[in-house]
Amino acid sequence: MKVNIIGAGNIADYHARSIKALGYQLGIVADENENSAKRFAEKYGCRWTTDAALLLSEKSDLVTVAVPNAYHFDVATAAVKAGHAVLCEKPMTRSAEHSKQLAELVRQTEKPFFVGYMKRVHPTVRKFEEYAARIGNMRSGLVRVYHPTPQDSWTFVRDRLAQFPDAPMDGVFVNAGSHMLDLLLRFAGPVKKVLAARMQYQEGCCPKVDQMTHALLEMENGATVTVECGWLPLFGVGKRENGWDELLELRGDSGLGTLHTTFWERPQYESPVAELWDESLKTKESYNAGMVDNFEEEYRLIKMALSGEKVPLATADEALAVDRLIDDIFAAASIRS
Hints:
Blueprint: E1 2-6, H1 10-21, E2 25-30, H2 34-44, E3 47-49, H3 52-56, E4 62-65, H4 72-81, E5 86-88, H5 96-109, E6 113-115, H6 123-132, E7 138-148, H7 153-163, H8 172-188, E8 191-201, E9 210-219, E10 224-232, E11 245-252, E12 255-261, E13 273-278, E14 283-287, H9 294-306, H10 316-332
Parallel strand pairs: 1-2, 1-4, 2-3, 4-5, 5-6, 7-10
Antiparallel strand pairs: 7-11, 8-9, 9-10, 11-12, 12-13, 13-14
Domain GFO/IDH/MocA-like oxidoreductase: 134-232
Domain Gfo/Idh/MocA-like oxidoreductase N-terminal: 2-117
Protein name: Gfo/Idh/MocA family protein
């Protein structure tokens, strides 16, 4: 499988590393920053260009869109129109309206299109689908996302926004919370409405980069779900007491399912853990599939999908549902996303 990448920033490194690890071909990278493109090409042994149109003119099995969030819509749209199968990093776009347009384009062209909610592909996370089906009538849920972030990191964010007010930056809710919202929708179904929401910001960061987000959701299945996301300087909390505290909890009449996801930069050290309390059996089950690199698994499944197999990768329509929920939570908090 030959993959070309648009964008040579930090997240593109994880894609390139996985492509090479699987023995796939990395053809060419495009980035408007010449130094970034050169550095990336030298590191991964591929060609480079500053012209994305040149990359799109070349034949490939897949084009990966790894540019900043704000540019996903324009770049992914161009890739689809050029006739490529596409993997677009999450979120699919930064507005539900743009995501609706892109999803419609994907339907019209019928080209394979995947969105990079790669946490859903881990075998442990896939096992959680079985657990979620065994909790009975769902009554409540919790989405928790806390990442350890040094307090002095906000100085960089404030300074950058002061110097470049239009810099394409997002906070914890979009960058980290979106992954867990994808899992919530996948395992608990659609959201009926956002009941309430609040966002907290560091001075000089509003409305671009939130530090804390809380929301209360009413699901179509009747359950109430609490969402909480934060970047805080707490490095000894969470399931592994390393500061990474991500949890999806679904509570029903017959059981309680919990899913602890992991720091995605450490696939060789950590694995998600899925648990189920089954009231009828009066037992607790636990599942850990071991160390699996989410990015490698994502590309392995893409190759299968391109061969016609059914795989649990996020579709454009599923990503649209996440982006609609993101917009609705911003609106409920009276913040423009």
